[in-house]
Specification:
mainly beta; 24 strands; four-stranded antiparallel beta sheet
């Protein structure tokens, strides 16, 4: 894995705009560069066609669910598992199969329920594929990671993969009572680690994965801390994660290796009082396009991994920015320089 001394610079552009009060939670990038975007508040899953010649795209409602819609994990080419949860009420959690093979805009979506989780499940959030037919899903309120094994007949078998104090949320946290614990989740194949954010604890963590059994190995270790981390994508070549800070309206670069994010010189410019070094690649100074950023996913075209990332935002629906103005929700394209 290669790393560089400083994170690259970022340029933002708007891909699509949604009305105010839309909480765009997650997204998946399809091979043709169209996007699937989940809307938490309206329980919808939206299709955003590829951008053409720099013009913004028009979102189209693909399908709706009976529960708020959260993450999508592509388990086969153009076949996705979609997680839904009654996260603020009865907490039932479900997985649905979305088959986009051969789908054309305007056609109905092929959706079927494949799993209702045990009652201990509370709030499914980020997810990732760690091996063929093996999916991990963060449970933000139960404070754990689920493993789902998929059989050839789409029989889905859930089990608890890992539970750790760093993943918990605080049900008695006043204004932060609904602040997620574990949130984003990604697998880094080159080092066989699962990385995760824990929003309430302001942590970016990792845990090793057994390459044979796909079980968690050992205790999770802290990679970075101190900010309201949400979701992220990973650039393995640079040794960086690009992490959204939903309530802080920024996109941050975080080194994947523990220890690299803490300065040995606490007074160094850009370091916090705890020595945590912060690399803001977008959103500082405040950018009104980047309000309430949530999910992040790489582009799928040749050369886009490590250079082009797509972001969702809620425009401040969850936490209005410092000026108090809630903006329309957006999907953004972030392009990093080639240095």
């Amino acid at each position: 894995m290669m790393s560089v001394a400083t994170p690259p610079k970022a340029t933002l552009s708007i891909v699509a705009t949604f009305p105010e009060k839309f909480f765009l939670e997650n997204l998946a990038v399809r091979a043709d560069s169209s996007l699937l975007v989940s809307d938490l508040t309206r329980k919808g899953l939206w299709y955003v066609p590829p951008m053409r010649d720099g013009e913004t795209a028009e979102p189209r409602l693909l399908t709706s669910f009976e529960q708020p819609t959260l993450s999508m994990v592509e388990v086969e080419p153009d076949v996705f598992l979609v997680a839904t949860s009654n996260l603020y009420t009865t907490h039932e959690c479900f997985l649905h199969r979305l088959d986009m093979r051969g789908w054309k805009p305007g056609a109905p979506a092929a959706v079927s329920e494949v799993l209702r989780f045990p009652e201990v499940a509370q709030s499914l959030n980020g997810g990732c594929l760690i091996a063929p037919g093996v999916v991990l899903l963060a449970d933000s309120f139960a404070g754990l990671i689920w493993r789902v094994d998929l059989g050839p007949d789409w029989r889905a078998v859930p089990s608890v993969w890992l539970k750790h104090y760093s993943m918990s949320h605080d049900p008695n946290g006043g204004k932060l009572a609904d602040q997620p614990g574990i949130n984003g989740l990604r697998f880094v194949r080159s080092t066989s680690h699962v990385y995760y954010t824990s929003t309430f604890h302001k942590l970016f963590m990792r845990v090793r994965v057994d390459p044979i059994t796909r079980a968690a190995l050992g205790e999770p270790e802290m990679v970075a801390s101190g900010f309201w981390y949400d979701d992220f994508c990973v650039d393995e070549d640079r040794g960086l994660a690009y992490v959204t800070t939903h309530r802080e309206n920024t996109l941050e670069a975080v080194w994947l290796e523990p220890g690299r994010n803490v300065s040995t010189e606490p007074a160094r410019a850009g370091a916090t009082s705890t020595g945590q070094v912060r690399h803001v690649v977008a959103g500082e100074p405040f950018d009104d396009r980047l309000v309430g950023p949530s999910s992040a996913a790489w582009g799928r075209q040749v050369g886009e991994t490590g250079r082009v990332v797509f972001l969702t935002s809620d425009g401040g629906t969850k936490a209005p920015p410092p000026d108090g103005v809630v903006r329309p929700a957006k999907v953004l394209r972030v392009t990093f320089d080639a240095s």
